[in-house]
Amino acid sequence: MENQPRPSWTEYFMSITELVAQRSTCIRRKVGAILVRDKRIICTGYNGVPKGIQHCLDVGCMRQQLGVPSGERHELCRGLHAEQNAIIQAALHGVSIEGTTLYCTNMPCSICSKMLINAGIVKIYFKEGYADSLSKIMLDEAEIPYFSLGEEK
Hints:
This protein has about 150 residues and is of the alpha/beta class. Helix content is about 35%, strand content about 20%. It contains six helices and six strands; from the N terminus they run αββαααβαβαββ. The chain has helices at about 10-20, 55-60, 60-65, 80-90, 110-120, 135-140; strands spanning about 30-35, 40-45, 100-105, 125-130, 145-150, 150. The chain has a six-stranded mixed β-sheet. Strand 1 (about 30-35) and strand 2 form a beta hairpin. The longest helix is centred in the first third of the chain and has 13 residues, at about 10-20. The protein starts with 8 loop residues before the first helix and ends with a strand.
């Protein structure tokens, strides 16, 4: 048997975000997020509607029906973002996320970035960008480093 190299910690956690994203019920984009401290997963989240609400898979996408472009009018959506759900899961279980690193399949939007800044997240890794330039402006000002699959901002 040939010795295969182990994935780096970043590769490992990013691959887990892709698995978490598969739970999403969003029609337009499946997003996964995990918050990690000391190489341990603190909580996970994926995008979708609040509990007890019909899934977009079942009733359709309001944003699609209204023709809302990606990255705009975040309030016109039935769902929560993966980062928001990860923060909520930590809060529900009484777990502090201060000092954690976010791994996410997408760059956080400006709303999620504001939440992550105030929650004390210290670093962000993401796979794909997102059409919301305000998030990078705020993260830069808050001095929270963010990286796209190993590329420094």
